[in-house]
Amino acid sequence: MSEQETYFTIEKQGFAEFKDRGSKFLAHAFPVLSADAFKEKLNEIKKEHGRATHHCFAYRIGMDGNNFRVSDDGEPSGTAGRPILGQLDQRELINAAVVVVRYFGGTLLGVPGLINAYKTAASLVLQTTPVTQKMVEEEFTLQFDYTQMNEVMQVIKQYNCRVLQHETQLFCKMKIAIPKNRLLEVRYKYNELRDVELFKV
Hints:
Blueprint: E1 6-10, E2 14-20, E3 23-31, H1 35-48, E4 54-60, E5 68-71, H2 81-90, E6 96-103, H3 110-128, E7 131-135, E8 137-145, H4 149-158, E9 162-167, E10 171-179, H5 183-192, E11 197-200
Antiparallel strand pairs: 1-7, 2-3, 3-6, 4-5, 4-6, 8-10, 8-11, 9-10
């Protein structure tokens, strides 16, 4: 999985609603880059839907496939979080989360009914949320003399790198994200420039 050059994600929030036998399932999809950022967003949703019976979720972060979490939040084991994650994985989405809030409608749906409801709610919200394809990037720090700013920026533009942080003094320091598939070319270009240092974060 680590050899991928691009990945799919979402950049905007999405919302969809699914109803089954009186229960309402409100699905929220949003981009997420860390577990802490996810917790903040989950708490916001819990505040907004304080009277809901369950707040079930799944997220997947990062390229290695190991950073994911699912929660059934009191529903029978395996009926909510896993079906939600299944929808993220079916679309091969990374750095994305879905929270499905349930308002209980008085009728028990049973295990197959719950699995179907959470899966459908997650599927609906992901259908309404635009998916974007992004380059897999690696982060590096650049150090260079202020007089070389133009040459440094030229390489950044030419190879679709992104500037993440920037300190400008007489000696400049910049944190950049380089697309994995342009790494060799960028390294070569910066090696050619005198007094420009590029090192892994």
